[in-house]
Amino acid sequence: MLRTFKYLKPYIIPILFIFIFVGTRAFLDLQLPRIMGEVFDEAVSGKESSIIKSEIIKLGIQMLGITLLSIVVTIVSGFLESRVSAKYAKKLRDEVYTKIQSFSLDELDELTVSSLITRTTNDIQQVQQTVNMLLRMVVLMPFIATGAIIMALTKEPTLSIILVVSVSTLLILIAFVFIVTMPKFGIIQKLVDKLNLVTRENLKGLKVVRAYDMESYQEEKTNKVADDNRKLNIFVNRIFTLMWPGASLIMGLTSVGLAYFAIKFGFIETSSKFTPGDLSALIQYSNRTIMSFMMLTMILIAIPRASISAKRIMQVLDKPLVIYDKKDALVIEDVKGQVEFKNVSFKYPSAEENILTNINFVAQPNKVTAFIGSTGSGKSTLINLIPRLYDTTEGSVLIDGINVKDIKLSSLYEKIGYVPQQGILFKGTIESNIGFSSQSTDESIIKSAHIAQAKDFIENTQDGYQTEIAQGGKNVSGGQRQRLSIARALAKNAKIMIFDDSFSALDYKTDQNLRKALKENLNVTTLIVAQRINTIKDADQIIVLDKGQIVGIGKHDDLLKNCPIYLEIAQSQLSSEELAYAK
Ligand SMILES: Nc1ncnc2c1ncn2[C@@H]1O[C@H](COP(=O)(O)OP(=O)(O)OP(=O)(O)O)[C@@H](O)[C@H]1O
Ligand SMILES: [Mg+2]
């Protein structure tokens, strides 16, 4: 928690002002019981009633003035507190967000997306609220408590012993609550995490849950977590509810005790120094002391809760980046676009075994290199190594002979157009989606839509390029989404184009037209992952992957003759006439 406070540094001056305001407020607040006491003394002073009246009015006006001033100070400092804590939260959120943006898939896999969402929203909010409370209470409460105790002692030290007794009792009560509830908070936080997970899973998999008629099973799962959570929360809240009446009881007893002993030991009659007004003031001071301790407790309870959140936030910020720019990283210009894999092996950090083993090939500029292989053979993994979504475990990936690890990330990204296996669209318009890259132009948007075979369907929509795309591209079909994703990558005018199984949702004819258009229009290095032989059979070079190894490289015709695995895939997809024709 303390470490997140460094983000408060820029606001040190407003914070100082807050402390001054809050101190002023505490000082003003402490004047009221004293004046109230004077009012009492006036009332029983036995002076002429008109004089008493005017004196009381004078004191009343004083009290009113102090209260008004206190209100103004409270408003101003409240305004500052909210501002500082909101800015602090924004700074924290920005930092976390920037950090997440530079995470590779490694870190995302490890921390998980759903947890990162909670950390950027809920956790930061928790910390923000606590900081807001701290700014106010941390000065106010000790001020009032010490002030009230001092005032009480100066009024009458003997009677103040009662106050000491009641504060000690209160502290015991607080300690008890702490010991019982503290361990529960950690558990509650974990249960909230779990509840989020189950709920997310349920909502995301709604269709599957329905289709398999598993609503009641899922409901039971959710209910169990929710129930555990509820029980713990009720328990903790019950304890807390006990605390307030407990404190009120102590307050009441203290007041009665003070009055009782004041009368019993004759403070009021014998000592002219101690008046009924003093008694009233003393009672109010002791009440304020008890209240301050209660408020302090509330903060002390909030801090560990916020600490858990702060820890989760700092975990993100502290995470060392796996993929980052070297100090002397190169900016590459005018690339030809040759992509080479040299003895590349790769293992996912979470896995034991290599997914890719000793991969060697060169993809030439202006040529199409295709990848085929059974599902899980490592095609996506291989492709992901080029834009450094992951880094190789052994060997190197080279662009024009330069290791991608030596290239500045922004420069590398600039050279690569990438269409992921799952077409992803953002909320916005068709135009904003295709023109997502800053490298795209109005012209390239229209041209790429044309190449990606998306032109007809775009022009058939009511608003054309201005058609709204819903979140996640839910209002377009799978094939349309793929075409828009392809157009987006093309509009970037990159030198190296990567298509990860991006033609799978296209019908045969569109697939064919698209490949033809790509060939005619692009002078780039094209890397295509595909499931269908038809998609790749015209490629300049086909690489057959099996269990993470290359088992064949060549053209369609050669592979049919030399690569049994390729032949097997071909036989399962092509008619015997097509195969015979190839042979
Ligand atoms: N993030 C990950 N962490 C751990 N293992 C992974 C991860 N992603 C993929 N794998 C594993 O790596 C292997 C290769 O996956 P990959 O996605 O590269 O296959 P693919 O050839 O693209 O398959 P498909 O044709 O189904 O897309 C699989 O066995 C998979 O279980
Ligand atoms: Mg894949």
Automatic annotation (TrEMBL):
<keyword id="KW-1133">Transmembrane helix</keyword>
<feature type="transmembrane region" description="Helical">
    <location>
        <begin position="159"/>
        <end position="180"/>
    </location>
</feature>
<feature type="domain" description="ABC transmembrane type-1">
    <location>
        <begin position="16"/>
        <end position="305"/>
    </location>
</feature>
<feature type="transmembrane region" description="Helical">
    <location>
        <begin position="134"/>
        <end position="153"/>
    </location>
</feature>
<feature type="transmembrane region" description="Helical">
    <location>
        <begin position="12"/>
        <end position="28"/>
    </location>
</feature>
<dbReference type="InterPro" id="IPR011527">
    <property type="entry name" value="ABC1_TM_dom"/>
</dbReference>
<feature type="domain" description="ABC transporter">
    <location>
        <begin position="339"/>
        <end position="572"/>
    </location>
</feature>
<dbReference type="InterPro" id="IPR017871">
    <property type="entry name" value="ABC_transporter-like_CS"/>
</dbReference>
<dbReference type="GO" id="GO:0005524">
    <property type="term" value="F:ATP binding"/>
</dbReference>
<dbReference type="InterPro" id="IPR027417">
    <property type="entry name" value="P-loop_NTPase"/>
</dbReference>
<dbReference type="Pfam" id="PF00005">
    <property type="entry name" value="ABC_tran"/>
</dbReference>
<feature type="transmembrane region" description="Helical">
    <location>
        <begin position="283"/>
        <end position="303"/>
    </location>
</feature>
<feature type="transmembrane region" description="Helical">
    <location>
        <begin position="239"/>
        <end position="263"/>
    </location>
</feature>
<dbReference type="GO" id="GO:0016887">
    <property type="term" value="F:ATP hydrolysis activity"/>
</dbReference>
<keyword id="KW-0812">Transmembrane</keyword>
<dbReference type="InterPro" id="IPR003593">
    <property type="entry name" value="AAA+_ATPase"/>
</dbReference>
<dbReference type="Pfam" id="PF00664">
    <property type="entry name" value="ABC_membrane"/>
</dbReference>
<dbReference type="InterPro" id="IPR003439">
    <property type="entry name" value="ABC_transporter-like_ATP-bd"/>
</dbReference>
<dbReference type="GO" id="GO:0015421">
    <property type="term" value="F:ABC-type oligopeptide transporter activity"/>
</dbReference>
<protein>
    <submittedName>
        <fullName>ABC transporter, ATP-binding protein</fullName>
    </submittedName>
</protein>
<keyword id="KW-0472">Membrane</keyword>
<comment type="similarity">
    <text>Belongs to the ABC transporter superfamily.</text>
</comment>
<keyword id="KW-0547">Nucleotide-binding</keyword>
<keyword id="KW-1003">Cell membrane</keyword>
<dbReference type="InterPro" id="IPR036640">
    <property type="entry name" value="ABC1_TM_sf"/>
</dbReference>
<dbReference type="GO" id="GO:0005886">
    <property type="term" value="C:plasma membrane"/>
</dbReference>
<keyword id="KW-0813">Transport</keyword>
<dbReference type="InterPro" id="IPR039421">
    <property type="entry name" value="Type_1_exporter"/>
</dbReference>
<feature type="transmembrane region" description="Helical">
    <location>
        <begin position="59"/>
        <end position="80"/>
    </location>
</feature>
<keyword id="KW-0067">ATP-binding</keyword>
